[in-house]
């Protein structure tokens, strides 16, 4: 018999994959829907809980698979209602997940990688490099923990935590499909947003997703010179190439794109920057989310004042750009945009 570490997490299987596994075991494929119900609707943590299945099938499943679970290692609550959760993974690595309340909305910011390869200068996630991709079960596991362990009624799901989602597209895509499927978590596609810094190799696969998820493009600079400095990914995928790929995504039937723009005092907040950002936004028919820079340890960037950001927002609106100001919540617990770093040192698995 396989040890627990050798067994595949059953939540890493999509519905069709699970049906194929069941057929190979001599079981009818329709059992996959029952299993999905136990995993995603009921939040079962062990095969013994699958009481609608025969004991024989439960034992077969237990001999081949495991049901993984994230372990909560730390919780920090901000004075503004934001909550940051530190999860320990099966191999001892750590990720962070953030809950952001806003009126009737409760948004969860999901991580997709342990660390990040792309080391944006204003972001803590890449400070200690990249460790590994998250499996789809570890992505959906963040949602399952919040829904079933904490009993939360989540309204919006943004793939904006640790990592570059398009760099882990195979697992992110599977997680999106399971989250969207009625047999899975049943989350409407329009309530899910995938963020990217402009990782072009996965854009075509994103177009082929055929789910009306939202796409958020992290821009943060409107010239290659500054974007090279802030976002090293730009040296590989220059700004104009990214904008062209975004245009093609829109032509392919994708939903409206949002441009994320972190405002850094004295660096990317001039009138010329507003002109350049407005030109890109009009070209993509995109709306702009402005976010004030939140301090990251070891980085010398300056946080703008409210007046600085308001002025930049006014300039964009004067240029006929739909602009919103996204408040940087959770700064006091290092949970704001760009502050997620997990925990660098692994614990023992």
In total, how many beta strands? 14
Order the strands across the largest sheet as they lie in space: 3-4-5-6-9-10-11-12-13-14
Strand/helix succession? EHHHEEEEEEEHEHEHEHHHEHEHE
Principal-axes shape call? elongated
Low-confidence stretches: none
Written description of the protein model:
The structure is a single chain. This protein is α/β, with parallel strands linked by helices and 349 residues long. It has 2 domains: 8-66, DNA polymerase, domain 1, CATH 1.10.150; 71-333, Alpha-Beta Barrel (TIM Barrel). It has helices at residues 15-24, 31-41, 55-64, 136-149, 169-180, 203-207, 224-230, 233-236, 239-251, 271-284, 306-318, and strands spanning 8-9, 65-66, 71-77, 83-88, 94-102, 105-109, 113-115, 130-133, 156-159, 192-196, 214-218, 257-263, 287-292, 323-326.
List keywords for this structure.
alpha/beta, DNA polymerase, domain 1, TIM Barrel, 2 domains, two-stranded parallel sheet, 32% helix
Topology, please?
Blueprint: E1 8-9, H1 15-24, H2 31-41, H3 55-64, E2 65-66, E3 71-77, E4 83-88, E5 94-102, E6 105-109, E7 113-115, E8 130-133, H4 136-149, E9 156-159, H5 169-180, E10 192-196, H6 203-207, E11 214-218, H7 224-230, H8 233-236, H9 239-251, E12 257-263, H10 271-284, E13 287-292, H11 306-318, E14 323-326
Parallel strand pairs: 1-2, 6-9, 9-10, 10-11, 11-12, 12-13, 13-14
Antiparallel strand pairs: 3-4, 4-5, 5-6, 7-8
Helix pairs in contact: 1-2, 4-5, 10-11
